Amino acid sequence: MADPSSYRPKPGQIPDSPGVYRFRDEHRRVIYVGKAKSLRQRLANYFQDLAGLHPRTRTMVTTAASVEWTVVSTEVEALQLEYSWIKEYDPRFNVKYRDDKSYPYLAVTMNEEFPRVQVMRGHKKKGVRYFGPYAHAWAIRDTVDLLLRVFPVRTCSAGVFKNASRTGRPCLLGYIGKCSAPCVGRISPDDHWELADEFCDFMTGRTGTYLRRLEKQMTEAAEEMEYERAARLRDDIGALKKAMEKNAVVLADATDADLIAVAEDELEAAVQIFHVRGGRVRGQRGWVTDKVEEITTGALVEHALQQLYGEETGDAVPKEVLVPALPDPLEPVQEWLTARRGSNVSLRIPQRGDKRALMETVERNAQQSLVLHKTKRASDLTTRSRALEEIAEALDLDSAPLRIECYDISHLQGDDVVASMVVFEDGLARKSEYRRFEIKGRVGDTQVWHGEGQDDVRSMHEVISRRFRRYLADKERTGEWVDGNPDNPGTSENPGTSENPGATADAPIASSLTEDDGRPKRFAYPPQLVVVDGGQPQVAAAKRALDELGIDDIAVCGLAKRLEEVWLPGDDDPVVLPRTSEGLYLLQRVRDEAHRFAITYQRTKRAKRFRAGPLDDVPGLGDARKQALVKHFGSMKRLRSATIDQICEVPGIGRKTAETILAAFASAAPPAPAVNTATGEIMDEEESGTTSDSPGEPVAAGAPEDRRGQET
User: Fold this and answer.
1) Quick one: pLDDT at residue 421?
2) Start and end of every UVR domain (predicted)?
């Protein structure tokens, strides 16, 4: 690792003007390319104290051995030169695109005597009409196959065309009516060129004329009793409509635009692009990139624009480009796009209407792309094993943490404070083991505190204490050793319990893991590693909770979201895992899942609180009978003014329930005790989970994804 001060240029040597700079390593390889409005100000940022640099930037400057720059006159020139050098040198610390291939276009060679429809990639050629790009070449072939019934344009290669002309026999497509066979003179060059021009018109969105013309011809054929011709025209119309369905209209004003969306986390970003031409989605493409450097969404958009239009000119750059965030500064990028197109290009963020709705669709695709990428990465057994080994090595654990529990706190300005516990076993989510907690107050306090003084640190202490107090209680009830006393009956060295003296060595252990009905107990299995979402304060709170309970065989760490640093109890400096570390990726995925689960539960509680009404205080009155009451009376106002006899007219409502309903309306009584809906019995505090010692709510095993975080 090089010392940046050894190659740092003097401030007076760096020009205060726009330009592009390159960092090189000791072997003179370019490892990073960047542009700047002021080279002096930008390069000064790299040579500050290493402790103040982002970890990825710090790695870059310590890997580099020299820096050089090129001065240009404008920021637009800097943007163009930066793109050229990134393509030329492929620097390891710049944003890299995993799917950097040339996307296929549907091309019509209008510059030839007999225009040909084909799939083309690479640089655009003069005189060729392009449609797309498409995500896959087979999508182009499917569309062309449908359209050849109506527009039998030539699709064969030059060799096949010459061979057919020489022999006087057309190819198979000519025999089945999907080619007009200009090779053997069945159609003149002018007529074939006009047919290709009609094909292009249809692809640009002018479809109504052809459909009306074919429908008229079909009607005339039927009137003249030419039923075979009418049937063929009917099939042609169906083919055109099917082709139109493949290019569904999404914008009514025949807009030409590209929509770019970005889904990102701290380590990776997914980019999705929808190409809209003539109001139709003509193509889709996307890629996933590592965030090698600290980068904003606007900068990711700028890199995507460079990648997308760096080698494109003319019609390939649309009039309008819609993005989730604007590059900073905006003017150079907009000037560059305008120069690539040859006319003005609008680069903006859609705010409302159809374009905003379509952008949301692109954003969902980007998010799904990122999730799919992470899922594929996490599903690999070798990768998971390597991740667990890296975590064990980084945290100095005796063995790989096969069970990891992660905790997160969620609230809205101190209200509706909840916590989540997610479980990963062998690197995979164990959703049946997820738990959620309603934070009541500081553990040990008799007074429940709400909002004021309530923070993540206290909440983290409470939730860790509640979870592991329940774990210790389960161990004590099942005869395992308690309070550090291995001589207590029930251990493997001393099998059997006072309740079951004839039990074998395995019996107490088995009984500790299951309830009477055979299901696993809620907190029967301890983790090897507890991860908390946060830095030093949250880690210290979790460790303090475990120490107070006498638990010293469970490792604790925290993952700070801003810089993805791993914090250990008692350490002043974090553990910084390499950016490419599979262990860091697994910890990040565990933390993100805990955050998702917590915020889902918090939003559910908040929404339920907003929807609360007097009927919620009536014990035993479920959703079905609530809806029946509102439907019968038409409104809550009429129900409030109803008599007991009138309420009893509602099916399923007895006189006692009616009296309770009126009493709930008449007074602001505190919430009624929780009722077991299966038995009708009032549950005590431990069963209902309303005390501060409540261990948390389980999520039903196998519950669908969209229901987790709702009331169970």
Assistant:
1) 92
2) 208-243
